[in-house]
């Protein structure tokens, strides 16, 4: 399996890259600045996401979109996905999107999302809204094999790797203790596991411990 990881120098991208490398998979980091990579032996495409072409990605079985945008640039979650789906349309390459938890539904009718709640942090609301809009647009894409993977509400970059996780659907869920938690390391385990599975396509799943 050949895997390309966009944003491989970011927290989630690097964690997924390291997990894939640990399994001896053929991994390429797709980054704007290869000097930021810790492992200088990794295959690299040094290019901005918006400059990527179909030819750049055609050799990959899976492309992971771990692109992140903050502040005034949050709308790039939509524009970046639009670009990626455009260059991947009608190809066999699968697109895995590192998503957010704010758009998970908290009601069975799928009308109320986690970010709509009064307890959702104001500081993260613009990002959650932007990522939710990007997901809504992605749902309209039928000519790309995409999978959107939402983490739990608490997405812990400092958490431990247990190797255990629960795959859930569109609805917000918690464990037996009432916690919605996943470490970056266990999220990466789930993401790489999903690369070898074919039953999830053009849908969103969520991952928690």
TrEMBL record:
InterPro entries: NAD(P)-bd_dom (IPR016040), NAD(P)-bd_dom_sf (IPR036291), Polyketide_Oxido-like (IPR051606). It comes from the Bacteria. PANTHER family: FLAVIN REDUCTASE (NADPH). One of its GO terms (molecular function) is oxidoreductase activity, acting on the CH-NH group of donors, NAD or NADP as acceptor. This is NAD(P)H-binding protein. It holds the Pfam family NAD_binding_10. Residues 7-193 form the NAD(P)-binding domain.
């Amino acid at each position: 399996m050949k895997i390309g990881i966009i944003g491989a120098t970011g927290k989630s991208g690097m964690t997924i890259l390291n997990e894939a490398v640990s399994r001896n998979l053929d991994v390429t980091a797709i980054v704007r600045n290869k000097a930021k990579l810790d492992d200088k032996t990794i295959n690299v495409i040094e290019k901005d996401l918006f400059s990527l072409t179909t030819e750049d990605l055609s050799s990959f079985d899976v492309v992971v979109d771990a692109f992140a945008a903050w502040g005034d640039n949050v709308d790039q979650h939509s524009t970046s996905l639009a670009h990626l789906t455009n260059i991947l349309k009608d190809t066999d390459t699968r697109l895995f999107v590192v998503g957010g938890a704010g758009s998970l539904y908290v009601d069975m009718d799928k009308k109320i999302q986690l970010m709509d709640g009064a307890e959702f942090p104001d500081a993260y609301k613009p990002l959650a809204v932007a990522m939710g809009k990007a997901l809504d647009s992605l749902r309209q894409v039928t000519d790309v094999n995409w999978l959107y993977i939402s983490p739990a509400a608490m997405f812990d970059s400092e958490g431990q790797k247990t190797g255990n996780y629960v795959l859930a659907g569109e609805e917000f869920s918690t464990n037996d203790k009432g916690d919605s938690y996943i470490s970056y390391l266990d999220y990466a385990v789930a993401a790489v596991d999903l690369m070898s599975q074919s039953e999830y396509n053009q849908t969103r799943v969520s991952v928690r411990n």
